[in-house]
Amino acid sequence: MISRQWRGLAKPSHADRYVEHLREETFPQLQEIPGFVSASILRRTVANGVEFLIVTTWESIDAIQGFAGADVEAAVVPPSVQDMMVAYDNRVRHYQIVQ
Description:
Layout: E1 2-10, H1 15-31, E2 36-46, E3 49-58, H2 61-68, H3 79-82, E4 85-88, E5 93-96
């Protein structure tokens, strides 16, 4: 199992809209990809916005390719989400789940 982690810093006025985007658009699309297991939204308010850590769990790197393409470490950030952000990771981190 693989944990895929991405961080984004949303504009305060767009934070709730970003959560809505994840729940209504991104997560339903992920559920259709073979090998997708789960997704979590972690959120905290910081000085310059609302920080999100999006953690998805996958059966394998091959499964992640179904979402991200050949460059599995490339962040998938649609233009509508880019507009909601102050800053965000262009590259994601993958961790093998040990336990």
